[in-house]
Amino acid sequence: GSKEASITVDAPSDDVYIDAEDLSVKVEDTTGGDFEKLEVSSTAAVTKVTDTIDTTTVTLTATSTVTEGGVVTYTASVNHKVTGSDLVVKLANGQTITIPVGESSASVPFTAPNNVHNTNLDLSNKITDISGGNYEKTVAVGEPVTTVTDNPATPDVTTLSLTATDTVAEGGKITYTATLTNKAGTDLVIKLSNGETITIAAGSKEASITVDAPSDDVYIDAEDLSVKVEDTTGGDFEKLEVSSTAAVTKVTDTIDTTTVTLTATSTVTEGGVVTYTASVNHKVTGSDLVVKLANGQTITIPVGESSASVPFTAPNNVHNTNLDLSNKITDISGGNYEKTVAVGEPVTTVTDNPATPDITTLTLTATDTVAEGGKITYTATLTNKAGT
């Protein structure tokens, strides 16, 4: 006696997967009703089943402690098994963990850095992206931190080397550069054998200082300056090896001139003493300075002195007219000077000594014997040469 009837059934159960669908139901068979002819509509009864968004948690875990150079295992886990497609989990350190369909976890290994410092940085990581797995919604959980410890059996070696300007002229500048094979963990203070200090800042591998080369002077003192690392503090290295190779700079001379001046007594009476004096404008070093004169004499200026003299006796001239005495430097040697220049050609006036005039005797001789009608020779002889 009725025209309709209904039943109520459960829709597909709530889950975490993307599985929204249309449920289509048709009449498959009928019995009873006492109809002459019953036609069943072919149109299906369709119900749209929508997802209710449920969250799946993707958790990242890691090895808690590892020695440097050891392996950290990163594991991604889900609280519902993967369906549909593999779940791809990207990490902040650039690695990717893939959990296959049907599984709920997977792992990847990561090698802890082999840190050269005593202080090791903790390793932190996190999930940066999640894709696949057919989940309605995923949430990343966990930012694991791994403590990295030193391996005392195999300390990592850092080498420190020192270099310098190859060649410099005296009075120039020398640059010393300290270089590490690894960055300093803290400021590294380096004491050099020349008393200078270089500081390499934390996070840097090298630093330099510039110092004055030996000053410019007149002496021959070109040299090789050799400087080594004497001591270091700081840097936070497990093991710091200092290169034993010295930083060597060749210091070349710039040629400076030293003047050697010759002076003499200005006036002297004949037979008197003329004093010749050689003077330098920089004291003698290294070896005595030997000055040769045109009159054949030699003046020697000792090391540490700047002048020396020699006496010379003026000729005792028998004439009223006296010749001036002139002299000059003919050769200079010794003294360790880069370059020497001779200056001065002194002239000494020689005067007569009226108190003691010099005597010249004139004698006349003749042929002792001659025959009459022969020749007689008369000879006049002076004890000194005639001046005029």
From TrEMBL:
Residues 1-52, 54-150, 156-254, 256-352, 358-387 form the LapA adhesin domain. InterPro entries: LapA_adhesin_dom (IPR046779). Pfam families: LapA. This is Type I secretion protein. It comes from Pseudomonas monteilii. The lineage of its organism: Bacteria, Pseudomonadati, Pseudomonadota, Gammaproteobacteria, Pseudomonadales.
